[in-house]
Amino acid sequence: MDNLYIPDLATLEQIQEETPSIRTLTLALDRPRTFNCQPGQFIEFTVFGQGEFPVSVAGVSDAQRGRFQVTIQRAGKVTKEVFQLQPGAKLGVRGPFGNGFPLEKMQGQDVWLISGGVGLAALWYLLAQLQEQRGRWGQLKLLYGARSPQDIIYQDALRALGRDQAGPQVLLTVDSAANGWSGRVGFVSQLLPDSGLDPGKSVAVVCGPGPMMKATTAALRKLGLAEERILLSMERRMQCGMGACGHCMVGSKRVCLDGPVFPLAEISNLLEEKF
Ligand SMILES: Cc1cc2nc3c(=O)[nH]c(=O)nc-3n(C[C@H](O)[C@H](O)[C@H](O)COP(=O)(O)OP(=O)(O)OC[C@H]3O[C@@H](n4cnc5c(N)ncnc54)[C@H](O)[C@@H]3O)c2cc1C
Ligand code: FES
Question: What ipTM was estimated for this complex?
Fold first, then answer.
């Protein structure tokens, strides 16, 4: 059995600059193995000589050849090194880890994907899967909030989705806008009251910064959506990424192993700051 603490080598094939502080990397595993990844799972990403951090898998472009995407925001010590990397760089990959989104819970339901900032990356592969299996769900909506128009990631893909009659309805908003932005201004949670969500047949999937998740869950509760129908993709500081070290515990839950996806009903009472 492979030692799960030893990263597989991967090559950085492509870089897409999303914003000045966020880039999407396409990686290919050097020793090809099928990259079995469920939407919502994450990898541990090593920049050799610097360290390791967890990052959501944002897309899988070729599972058989182990080729996939991650979208990384510059946050601190290790993620800042990602912005020095050039195509051809060698990196380390452990995983995928975590539970992923329960697609069976979404069967036949309207699915609202609600994200803020780089949190959209954690929902991006899910959105691709939902679209691929379009007949299994009811309405699909993507609600996305960024700080400013310049901070919106996946801009070309979002524009294409907006034009696609068969695609999800896309609602964008920014916290603040300068001249030239004619779209919505305000927090993503403020889009919910008029979004047409039917609490009897909807599942909401939420990922973003803490305050955004808190405001969004409050707005969803207000609309009458049950806590079992609110799925949160959680972030915590991690080390092993696979349930062994206890670093990522929230109450009795290990975010890396029991999560990172939790129904609000399962986690709301365990959070230090309650949602
Ligand atoms: C399951 C999971 C999925 C993630 N997916 C993504 C993703 O798709 N894209 C992305 O850009 N980031 C993602 N993150 C967050 C990413 O792991 C952190 O930004 C990264 O660990 C920061 O490392 P650093 O050494 O650069 O920062 P540090 O120097 O260690 O810290 C810099 C700042 O970031 C904060 N921070 C550090 N780790 C975390 C964390 N795990 N969660 C929240 N804040 C943190 C610190 O409190 C500090 O304020 C994810 C985290 C988890 C747990
Ligand atoms: S990071 Fe080690 S138990 Fe979760």
Answer: 0.96
